[in-house]
Amino acid sequence: MKKIIQFALILLLISIVTNCGVTKDANSISKIVKPEFSYDDEVYVPVLKSERKNFFKDSEPETKWVDSIYNQMTFEEKIGQLFMVAAYSNKDSVHVNSIDKLILENKIGGLIFFQGGPGRQANLTNRFQSKSKVPLFIGIDAEWGLSMRLDSTYKYPWNTTLGAIKDLKLIEEVGRNMAQETKRIGAHFNFAPVLDINTNPKNPIIGNRSFGEDKVNVTEHAIALMKGTQSQGVFCTGKHFPGHGDTALDSHYALPLVSFSKERIDKVELYPYKRMFDEGLVSVMVAHLNVPSLEPRENYPTSVSYKVVTDLLQNDLGFEGLIFTDALNMKAASKFMKPGDIDLEAFLAGNDILLFAENVPFAVQKITEAFQNGQVTEDRIAKSVKKILHYKFKVGLNKFKPIDIKNLANDLNTTYKDALQYQLYEHATTVLKNKNNILPIKNLDQKIAYVKLGDDTNSAFVSTLKKYTEVTEVSDTNLDSLEVKLKEYNIVIVGYHKSDRAWKKHDFSETELAWIQDIAKKNNVILDAFAKPYSLSTIPNFEDFEGVVMSYQNSDFSQIVGAQLLFGAIESQGKLPVSINEEFKDGFGLNTEKLNRLGFTAPENVGVSPRVLSKIDELAKKAISGKMTPGIQVLVARRGKVIFQRSYGYQTYEPVVKVQNSDLYDVASLTKIVSTLPNVMQLFEQGKVNLDTKLGDMLPQIKGSNKQDISFKELLSHYSQLQPWIPFYKATLDTEKCPSNKYYSLNSKPGFTIQVSENLYLRNDYQDSIMKQIVDSKLLDKKEYKYSDFTFILLKEYLEKTSGKTINVLSSENFYRSLGMNNTLYNPLQKFDASVIAPTEEDTYFRHTLVQGYVHDMAAAMQGGVAGHAGIFSNAMDIAKIMQMYLQKGNYGGIQYFKPATFDTFNTCNFCSEGNRRGLGFDKPQLGKEGPTCNCVSKSSFGHTGFTGTMAWADPETELVYVFLSNRTYPDSNAANKLSKENIREDIQKVIQEALLDK
Fold it and tell me: Which of 72, 214, 275, 329 has the most C-beta neighbours closer than 10 Å?
């Protein structure tokens, strides 16, 4: 019996050991994962000191200058060089005068600026420098750019966000840009990069300031940032030595404990420093930490430890650059010793610069006393002071020049920084889950809802989502009610938006956690988190989520990029820099497919000058102030990216309703290439017609007429001798030139259901009359290019006869739904309120009413607003989509609408030799001086213009799409067309061409 019990115990033990090795299921309960380290992972062997890189090489003039300055210094001046004092540009004269006094009386060596503004700081820097015998070092904590401290300056992504980027050239570019800004305000040090490896997810002070939890990833990003920074002559400071990443306390308030062994610290925490030293790091900041394995004295801060600062940092690691203490006013230091004593202790430990000393006069006194009693030697003072002077020479302080205040704000906030931000977020945004390839969202013909969680802004995200397709914002204060509302949607996008301020908490509330899990269980949910990665760790599991995206921050750039990723305008490239749970670990990130849908970026990213492009503003304002049109929409896209989208003016000349990018315009003849032509192209590709097909074979009513032998090619080239148009409406007016009761009713009734305007209905049988007038019309005497609306009126008849569907249904089903053109339609008042539709005329000759939401073209109005030549309402964004589809030769969003060869056929000028510039349906650049373009686009370009003051043009050679919409016909379409006479559309097109940087 005893042996049986022993055997059973052995089996139980084996079972326990075996089960401990089982891998956790991917859908297991989520929890924060603290990284585990093996001492057998990558070990870095430093190079010889002589082989270390050096951004700032020594020189003979430098040595002479240092020796000369040092030898002229008094003892007090030498000691003063050791202090870098806190300065603020947002404080009063008392503070400013106190800094003046420290410079004049205590001969301090430098200033670290904190809160304020760039202009004020630059002025103060010039003031303080003018009072200092030896020019001052100026430093600033600008880990994510000057905005960390200064208003009106640029904010770069946090290091955690940058840590998700695999292209280190981008990180180097960030360093370069931050350095240029630092240099521009007269600063010499950026106290960055943070080298802490954030191995403690609950770290209260490092967190998003770290590049991540993997030592190699942290180091490579830090090196890249340093290279970019120091290449511009600005010094980097690696911090917080020997490693603040795995701490549970904030050293601003208490002394954090780091309980790791010396071996662990050497393999992990010191890894970045070893590599950075070999790459040429100029300076190091020593943290206030309690590390018993490095400093055995109990609760003794590393910043004042000789064993850490001298033995470890300088002797063991061989660092010869400048050594800063962390700020000595932090409680981790100030609680340990009082001001003065802590400064002396820090200097004795081996630090060169004492940062944020609280009482400089007392600290000078303490160091002086230590010198007098032999505790501090002349050699020790010379070591630090001469090192400081060497670096002052390297940064150019031997020939100090005051900061030029002129254009400071513009220099600090160049448009290129926007371009860089787009690139950074495009490379950082990380897809964590993509069940059944829900991402990117391919099918736009489905119902999509958006639900907001979090307490910060979401406008950039929502507005960009809506540029792709119809996305409905759904909200409710009650979860059950919200669930009822969401039942009708195929996909629910949940945006989690938390403040983009660095120190704000990003955790889900208990209510939000309950809501997100419940919504995910009952719907197809895509969660996009605009928050710190660790915020997702509180979600118990992700089994019920179809898609999960980490966007890291809640900036406008991250929101715009996040929306693009959801709809496939960009692919996902980011990799998690930290672990969220067992499923989503450091380095994890899924790749998604890139669809060729329009995206959004800054002009520089596609080789366009924003400075030149801004001249569009002047032309638009000229048009509006000159009463050429009340309002305008302009859009420019290049290489598949929208780079300029602005609206100008008001819907009318009364400054009441401002034009918005989403407003709708009557696009007039753009209807021809937006609605009729693409449908015709599909029939052509299906073999229903060919270039030689006769009009009489296409439409029975044309048989036997003078038009029966017009070929398809001639028809679409406006080379068929058709009359330009017939004013059909005139025959329906009475003697008072008002709509005749014979043809119209003021309300809809049997036989009168064709709505022409708000209270005007045409008799149904008049459609036959319109066609009869076209069929019976005479041909022009001469065969030459003559633009005619009849072409597309007839093509509409052909399309509807062939398909059995009306053209509005055809265009919606074949193109608009799948292209995401949800703002493009006939008769927009059936879907939209009149307030978002620009009026086209105060009609005094036909309908005698304000024409708003009803088509302006009289013939199209008499066809119920649905015609082949006019009738479409849209906005610039939607028009750009179909123009981009043409530019991509029939492909958009992963859908091939027609073959490239079909597009090429229709974009061919068949009668150029006869003086006819037209393609098949498309307008083309002029053959001489006069025509629709600026005469500065390629011959392969194509597009169309419209009577209401519209234009859409695309150029395959420059990959440009240009859309111009206006209501120049308001209030009187019969007035002189000043918009055309002044060449506003063409001049804007010329500006776009001039803005190309790679012509």
Answer: 214
Q: Measured between alpha carbons, how far is 798 from 805 in angstroms, rounded to an integer?
A: 11
Q: Token pair for residue 301?
A: 């801060």
The continuous run of DSSP H or E covering 841 comes out as strand 841-842
Pairing of strands 665-666, 641-649: unpaired
3-state helix, strand, coil in the chain (%, to 5): 40, 15, 45
**Confidence at residue 260, expressed as pLDDT on a 0 to 100 scale:** 96
Q: Is the pLDDT confidence value at 978 over 70?
A: yes
Roughly what angle, to the nearest 10 degrees, separates helices 93-106 and 118-131?
Answer: 30
Q: What is the maximum span of the chain, computed from C-alpha positions, in angstroms?
A: 121
SS3 for 142-203 is CECEHHHCECCCCCCCCHHHHCCCCCHHHHHHHHHHHHHHHHHCCCCEECCCECCCCCCCCC
- In what order do the strands lie in the sheet containing 641-649? 599-600, 641-649, 631-638, 960-966, 950-955, 942-946
| Neighbour count for residue 694 (Cβ, 10 Å) | 18
Taking residues 28-42, report their average pLDDT: 56
The DSSP call for residue 970 is S
The chain-wide mean pLDDT, for the chain, equals 95
Q: Give the model confidence (pLDDT) of 325-382 as tens digits.
A: 999 999 989 899 999 999 999 999 999 999 999 999 999 999 999 999 999 999 999 9
Specify the 3-state DSSP secondary structure of 343: helix
Would you place residue 138 in the very low, low, confident or very high pLDDT band (cuts 50, 70, 90)? very high
How far is the C-alpha of 812 from the C-alpha of 921, rounded, in Å? Answer: 20
List the catalytic residue out of 196, 246, 266, 326. 326
How many Å separate Cα 163 from the centre of its chain? 17
Q: Write down the pLDDT at residue 42.
A: 80
Question: How far apart (Å, rounded) are the C-alpha atoms in residues 813 and 801?
Answer: 17
- 30 contact partners, CB below 8 Å, separation of at least 6: 536, 537, 538, 539, 540, 541, 542, 580, 581, 582, 583
Count the alpha carbons within 13 Å of 6 in the hemisphere toward its beta carbon. Answer: 3
Residues 6+ apart with CB under 8 A from 870: 666, 668, 669, 671, 789, 855, 856, 857, 859, 860, 946, 947
First to last CA, the chain: 93
Give the per-residue pLDDT at 26: 35
Report which of residues 496 and 29 the model is more confident about.
496
| Contact yes or no for 570/561 (Cβ under 8 A) | yes
Token pair 């050293």 in the structure block, residue = 251
Query: Torsions phi, psi of 962, nearest 5?
Result: -130, 125
Residue ranges of alpha helices (H) inside 373-443 are: 378-394, 408-412, 416-428
**Is 252 among the catalytic positions?**
yes
664 DSSP 8-state letter: B
pTM of the predicted model as reported, rounded to 2 decimal places: 0.93
What's the pLDDT score for residue 35?
64
Let me know if 221 is a catalytic residue. Answer: no
